[in-house]
Amino acid sequence: MRLITTILVLLLSLAPAAATEAGWALLRNGGHVVLLRHAITPGTVEPATFDIENCATQRNLSDRGKQQARKMGALFAARAETTERVLSSRYCNALETARIAFGDRLVEPFAALDQPLPGTQIDDAQKEEIMNTIRAFDGSGNLVLVTHLEIIVALTGQTAREGEAVIVRPDGEGLHILGRIVFN
């Protein structure tokens, strides 16, 4: 019984690594769209004093989150085709993730990637704006969209951990997940 348990634990620990390697293989070829959930941020909801223009009123990256964002950038630079464009939610945790990982020069704030207000969901117009941007992308490098869990779920029907990359392609009215990269 102990041997079976050990084997199961080993197999389960290898699954994310295999998925991550498959994700890097996709990004090496370029021309892909990546939904990247912002790096590690303490807490689960924005404070009541939230102001989109003031980072002091928002949940910001933890030290571990900043380290994770640096790792993302280093790995994208080393293992993927050029990152052609980076669009980010205007929330400070997403913008900071994007800027640390990819540098200020590439990062463009994109309001459609903002998470919905508490108790609301992404609306059809917001989803369509994101989908139109994804459908229009035809670059040889990769397009990275730094956003939030709610947006990733609305677009794919799947969750993503903080700092996880979900590689997608348009499929009818939605997105098809091609691969994932987990940044620990």
UniProtKB/TrEMBL annotation:
It comes from the Bacteria. Residues 1-18 form the signal peptide. Keywords: Signal. This is Phosphohistidine phosphatase SixA. It comes from Pseudaminobacter salicylatoxidans.
